[in-house]
User: Which sequence fits this backbone?
């Protein structure tokens, strides 16, 4: 089964700056938390950045919430970042160059209020380490680009903390790096993942703790085993690890109103409710799919539900079906198949300041970067 990295985020709101003008230093009126919504309907589909074949095809990479808007980044020679309107449409703000050249194939964004940063994956021990830069609320660089302490280049999953930011290194037995707002190292902590496993990702929880997701494959049977473990923000374990009986990898984790939902694709979209440590608390829920599975994305909603986006193959295109899940794992209402065909199975669902759900993707036919919105119905 194809392995797919996904980014899942929540956002705040912000003001616009006209193209070509300087960014105002006046404080903005921002809304740090989106309103509660209980239902979403299909909204508009917005063009964010057109493909320019003469400059190379864009690679969509990351989006993040700040107290002042939605930042989105993509790669086309340099990595670029801009800010979107709350409905997901393109504003008149300019593109900002985040990293002037491509070192790795992936970039992360993270924010804690108006403290924002970007990190680019490195190219390994024989190439370049990861690089880090603070950003302002418009997506412009707000400090120097620095190399991180992860010289292996395997950094991933940048997240905000009270002291700055943290990220994982997936090499060896897994490590957590805590850095300040400029990228300077504060602490480096071994997570002691057995060497027979691979670190997939982590799911951040509302108190700054996280669920580490690791797996291994039995090469004789092609069966995967997944383990989840709850750590605090500094990398100390909060509970014993839990085995997920999924048979496939990866699984995807999102916080719900009563704990977590663990989601994966097999013969159906499978959903398991757990407590905050990953221990099952209810029955597994199977949701029918319409085609072969290619990826799942999950995001926590302000009302305590979880939205799951299932990417499935239909003919020659990827189709995307959206399922709103209660904390029990049971679907609320009927699923919605979106009228989009993404080029990649990497999707980013984002809850906007007005409560809309925004889904960034590369359009298969044109390679344009677009955002499909789902409109909040209170």
Assistant:
């Amino acid at each position: 089964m194809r392995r797919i990295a996904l980014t899942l985020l929540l956002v705040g709101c912000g003001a616009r700056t006209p193209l070509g003008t300087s960014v105002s230093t006046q404080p903005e009126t921002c809304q740090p938390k989106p309103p509660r919504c209980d239902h979403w309907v299909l909204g508009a589909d917005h063009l964010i950045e057109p493909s320019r074949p003469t400059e190379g095809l864009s690679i969509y990479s990351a989006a993040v919430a700040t107290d002042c808007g939605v930042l989105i980044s993509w790669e086309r020679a340099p990595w670029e970042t801009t800010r979107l309107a709350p409905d997901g449409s393109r504003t008149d703000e300019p593109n900002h160059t985040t990293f002037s050249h491509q070192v790795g194939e992936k970039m992360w964004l993270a924010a804690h209020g108006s403290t924002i940063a970007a990190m680019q994956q490195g190219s390994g021990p024989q190439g370049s380490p990861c690089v880090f830069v603070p950003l302002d609320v418009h997506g412009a660089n707000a400090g120097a680009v620095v190399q991180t302490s992860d010289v292996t280049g395997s950094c991933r999953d940048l997240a905000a903390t009270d002291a700055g930011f943290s990220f994982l290194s997936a090499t060896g037995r897994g490590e957590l790096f805590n850095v300040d707002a400029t990228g300077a190292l504060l602490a480096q902590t071994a997570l002691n993942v057995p060497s027979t496993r691979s670190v997939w990702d982590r799911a951040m929880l509302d108190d700054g703790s996280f669920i580490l997701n690791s797996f291994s494959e039995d090469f004789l049977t092609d069966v995967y085993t997944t383990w989840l473990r709850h750590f605090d923000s500094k990398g100390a374990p909060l509970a014993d690890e839990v085995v997920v009986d999924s048979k496939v990898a990866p699984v995807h984790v999102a916080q719900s109103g009563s704990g977590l939902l663990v989601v994966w694709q097999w013969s159906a979209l499978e959903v398991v409710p757990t407590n905050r440590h990953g221990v099952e608390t209810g029955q597994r829920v199977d949701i029918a799919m319409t085609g072969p599975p290619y990826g799942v994305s999950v995001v926590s909603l302000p009302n305590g539900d979880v939205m799951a986006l299932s990417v499935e193959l239909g003919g020659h295109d990827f189709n995307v079906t959206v399922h709103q899940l209660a904390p029990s794992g049971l679907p609320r209402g009927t699923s919605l198949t979106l009228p989009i065909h993404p080029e990649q199975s990497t999707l980013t669902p984002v809850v906007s300041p007005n409560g809309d759900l925004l889904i960034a993707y590369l359009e298969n036919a044109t390679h344009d970067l677009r955002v499909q919105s789902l409109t909040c119905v209170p």
User: Anything to note?
Assistant: The chain has one domain: 9-14+29-377. DSSP finds no helices and 29 strands in the chain.
